[in-house]
Design goal:
Among the domains are: about 80 residues, Herpes Virus-1; about 140 residues; about 210 residues, 6 Propeller (Neuraminidase), CATH 2.120.10.30. Helix 3 packs antiparallel against helix 6. It is about 35% helix and about 25% strand. The protein is of the alpha+beta class.
């Protein structure tokens, strides 16, 4: 499998054909052959699109073959040659087969050029290519490619600013050339630079190995989750089936009870109707008897005296007659009342979507609010300029208006509110950013205004709970800082990076280049916006990221502060943080959201915030300083998947 992965490095990611020296390596590290590279360009040829990951890049004209593969591709190309060309003839545009090699000139020569060479340079030593092994000839050609093309000498010097290698003569010309963009070039040995970069690469390789182990562990957790999820689904499915069977069984029992109740009601109704029928039959018989008496009384052969006596008798019996003839009303309605449990169960089974189980996609990052702490009120409204969380999950907050440092314990209890005038002896220091040297348990705070602009603080157990170990005095305003390998990098308002050791010894100063949009701002806005910058370190690749509230790009620099990458901002933000995987998180004040760069929303705040939001990422938690209606606080969010 490893060999298959290695072979894939030498294949075009678009067509799977073998790469050549004309292939191009994109910034995403995907290599494409020359024909496929031309297909990646858009119609206007303003940018190209990677056919593998679909990333878009603008500076496509400067793309070259991958330096990782260049040597092997060059060796393959030379090995495929059936014959070698004369260098002198090739320089004149003539194709001729080389037969000799001159050691001093470091050139391949044909028969004609060799004759002229012997006349002019008879002391030079030459070799016949037919007497040399093919591997020796290829090795000579490879060495020629790595030598200076002008002086045919080994490239021993390195320029850190442009990243090019030179021979001694070319480096002198490069350093003294007034037209070169490199200023104050420091001579560096290629061998020493390779050794230095190899050490950095080894550290990066170790971190990548650790990152690989983390990914494997994460994959294992996902697989374990899927296995458990599968078993849980099977158990839940059987439970649901048993619940439905129980519902059906109870419904059957209730239906049987209901049928029995209906049968009882029906029997009772039949008996009642039978009684009413018999009573009506008796009434009909009485009516028949009275009608017979009427008919007999009204017969023609009756005397008047008998008729009078009969009428008097009937009048006396009239109330009884009315009572007997009073009809009995039958207003009976059968009501079928089903139990609520039965009705609701039937409705839910027929018409409702019963949610017995909710399933989320594995790996879909979401965050939920875990806790909130409120900062105590003061006479002046608090302005939180930065936040930091240590390995004990103690939260440190810099308050610029009150010139203090507030420490919260993990449970939200305030340990102390440290006033900076305890150590600066004046009230002019305003903290702007904070970081830590974790190996020394030292907090480093930079500030605007005042003279002591960089403070190194060590915690202690008694009041005022911090002591000053080192400080650096300067008139320059420091706006942001970060720590990498016990070196503190501090950004000032002139867009310069000042590096300090853990003992507060100033090491170097680097000027950030390419910030032309900020320099074009007029003087009023420039005075404001130059304070709204942040630098943060990438724990994975050890690079430094720069952002300004009104600068349209997020810029990545290496540790020598040479620009190596930039990304367009799709949202407007001030503070940002990177986690241990190099992922960038920030707070979008306009949309009131915590986001994952470049544009993925993670969570939205419950209320619209009044000011810029500071954020710190520690493990799987996000610590955000919020401000609403003059009240400041800290909200803690946590990942869930």
């Amino acid at each position: 499998m490893a060999s298959n992965r290695l072979e894939s490095l030498y294949q075009c990611v678009a067509c799977d054909n073998e790469l050549s020296r004309q292939s191009k390596c994109l910034p995403c590290l995907h290599s494409v052959c020359q024909p496929c590279f031309l297909n990646t360009l858009n119609e206007a040829e303003t940018h190209c699109t990677c056919p593998k990951c679909h990333a878009q890049f603008v500076d496509w004209k400067y793309f070259e073959v991958s330096p990782i593969l260049e040597k092997e591709l060059m060796q393959q190309e030379f090995a495929s040659l059936s014959e070698f060309q004369c260098n002198w003839c090739s320089a004149d545009g003539i194709s001729s087969v080389a037969k000799f090699w001159c050691k001093q000139c470091r050139k391949f020569l044909c028969d004609h050029c060799m004759r002229n060479h012997k006349r002019l340079l008879d002391t030079h030593i030459s070799k016949d290519l037919d007497e040399m092994r093919r591997s020796e000839v290829i090795a000579l050609m490879m060495k020629m490619q790595n030598d200076c093309p002008l002086h045919q000498k080994e490239l021993k010097m390195y320029c850190m600013q442009c990243g090019n290698c030179f021979c001694n003569e070319c480096f002198t010309m490069h350093a003294n050339n007034p037209m070169t963009p490199c200023i104050n070039v420091t001579p560096l040995s290629v061998c020493k630079e390779i050794a230095k970069r190899s050490k950095q690469f080894s550290n990066l390789k170790c971190k990548m190995g650790s990152f690989k182990d983390d990914v494997k562990a994460s994959t294992e957790k996902v697989l374990q989750f899927l296995s458990k999820f599968k078993s849980d689904c099977a158990i839940k499915r059987s439970q649901i089936w048993l619940q439905y069977e129980s519902v059906v069984d109870k419904a059957k029992q209730d239906a049987l009870q209901l049928n029995e109740k209906i049968d009882d009601e029906m029997q009772e109704m039949f008996a009642k109707c039978d009684r009413m029928t018999r009573q009506n039959d008796e009434i009909l018989q009485e009516i028949s008897t009275w009608l017979l008496n009427f008919d007999h009384l009204l017969s023609k052969d009756r005397q008047d005296v008998e008729l009078l006596r009969g009428i008097r008798m009937l009048e006396k019996q009239c109330p009884v007659f009315r009572h007997v003839l009073q009809p009995t009303e039958m207003n009976y309605e059968m009501l079928l009342e089903f139990p609520d449990y039965w009705c609701k169960t039937i409705d839910s089974l027929q018409y409702e979507d019963v949610g017995f189980l909710t399933v989320e996609k594995v790996g879909n990052r979401k965050i939920t609010k875990e806790n909130r702490f409120d900062l105590p009120e003061t006479r002046e409204n608090r302005y939180i300029s930065s936040i930091y969380v240590n390995e004990k999950e103690h939260i440190f907050v810099c308050d610029q208006n009150n010139k203090s440092l507030i420490e919260f314990k993990k449970n939200g209890e305030i340990r102390t509110e440290f006033q900076f005038f305890y150590v600066t002896k004046d009230n002019s220091f305003q903290p702007s950013d904070i970081c830590s040297i974790s190996t020394e348990s030292i907090l480093v705070v930079c500030g605007c205004y005042g003279n002591k602009n960089l403070l190194f603080l060590k915690e202690k157990n008694n009041f005022p709970f911090f002591r000053l170990t080192h400080f650096y005095e300067t008139k320059t305003n420091f706006v942001s800082l970060c720590e990498q390998n016990e070196t503190i990098f501090v950004l000032d308002t002139n867009f310069q990076i000042n590096s300090f050791s853990k003992n507060c010894t100033k090491l170097e100063i680097f000027q950030l280049e390419g910030l032309n949009d900020l320099n074009r701002l007029n003087s009023f806005y420039y005075r404001i916006y130059k304070f709204l910058s942040r630098i943060r370190v990438d724990p994975l690749c050890e690079n430094i990221w720069f952002s300004n509230l009104f600068y349209p790009e997020l810029i990545c620099f290496d540790l020598n502060f040479l620009k190596i990458n930039s990304m367009k901002k799709k949202r407007k933000f001030y503070d940002f943080q990177l986690n241990k995987l190099g992922q960038i998180f920030f707070c979008d004040l306009n949309e009131n959201e915590i986001c994952w760069f470049p544009n993925q929303k993670l969570v939205q705040f419950e209320e619209k915030q009044d000011d810029f939001l500071q954020i710190f990422v520690y493990e799987e938690k996000y610590f955000v300083c919020i401000k609403k209606n003059g009240r400041s606080g800290i909200e803690i969010f946590k990942n869930f998947y």
